[in-house]
Amino acid sequence: MAQVTAYIGIGANLGDARANVLEAIARLARLPGATLVEASPSYRTAPIDASGDDYINAVARISTTLPAEELLRALHAIEAQHGRERPYRNAPRTLDLDLLLYGEEQIASATLTVPHPRMTERAFVLVPLLALMPSITVPGKGAASDYLASVAGQAISKL
After folding, report:
1. How far, in Å, CA of 82 to CA of 94, rounded?
2. Which pLDDT score, from 0 to 100, does residue 94 have?
3. 94/85 Cα distance (integer angstroms)
4. What gap in Å lies between CA 149 and CA 110, rounded to an integer?
5. Is a pLDDT exceeding 60 seen at residue 71?
């Protein structure tokens, strides 16, 4: 399979969230079938549609030969190794890894939607994503930078 550039959203707000985000980036660098190209700086954000402590967020760019569904399973395995539980939607978490973009593909399956359906509504995704790739476009939606104004009210600070 050809190399595909994928973007992974990383977040945590339980335990040592900052260490969990850094460890997730390190695990992405060791993921078979993938190469970590670059990770954004980390950011502190308040929970959105959720409760709990502030989140630590980042975005990683990888190059991978893994099919999208297989990459998603690998991300879920990394989450599980960090004790991720899913007791309810938007529950606080030790680690959250979201497949944001997978090349230029638009995927809508029972288990995966790419581009991530809420990525253009979240400063904690857009700000680190644009730090990596200021000119990035979201397939089917246009320039990611066009959505910054709509998330300007969401508190986010670079660590």
Report:
1. 6
2. 82
3. 8
4. 31
5. yes
Q: Enter the tokens of residue 60.
A: 């990683």
Residue burial 91-124, b: 16+ Cβ < 10 Å; e: rest: ebbbbbbbbbbbbeeebeeeeeebbbeebbebbb
Query: Which residues are tagged catalytic?
Result: 84, 93, 96, 98
CB proximity list for 50: less than 8 A, separation 6 or greater = 90, 91, 92
pTM here is 0.94
Report DSSP letters for 45-105, one per residue: E--SSS-SSPEEEEEEEEEE-S-HHHHHHHHHHHHHHTT---SSTT---S-EEEEEEETT-
CA–CA gap between residue 97 and residue 34 (Å, rounded): 15
**Residue whose tokens read 């550039």:** 5
